[in-house]
Amino acid sequence: MKEENNKPDIILIGGGGHCLSVIDVVEQEDKYNIKGILDDTKEGDVLGYPILGNRDLVKELSTEGVFFLITVGQIKSSSVREDIALLLESCKAKLATVVSPLAYVSKYATIGEGTVIMHNAIINAKAKVGKHCIINTKANIEHNVQIGDFCHISTCATVNGDTVVGKGTFIGSNATISNGITIAEQSIINAGDFIKR
Which fold has domain 9-96? Predict the structure, then answer.
């Protein structure tokens, strides 16, 4: 885990299972040096990267010019991720946007700050993904889709064209959303569900 001086440092917030997957994406993208992880309950390291302390360190670390990425997972609620984002905003922290080199993101798509696009995800033309989202492994976001802030589109889920997904929504693994659907904020779509008009 040799540091390259020409790359900016990144701090990951949250040291659980989602963090493991994000570390792999950050390493593959090779855009940032992982300086360490902040976690409110753990000590030690995650995949060899040190846990530096809890989120109380955000204010201090943000003055060092490092980037931050929220790596707390999300299923039932986006509230923890939203609380961390408010803390980052209050500290005027810099936000990283991380995109796996194995993902496809159309040049006509828009990705918000603080979002992570995992391996083999597809973001098609004119799709708009909000801030602090998780677009997980093999998720498919089709043309003209709008994904609100703090959404988690889980593994192998498909969101078809012209769909609007409200803020804080979780769409489970292998779920399929038909085209032109509007999904309310803070919705939970279970794994394998098929949502149609």
Answer: Rossmann fold (3.40.50)
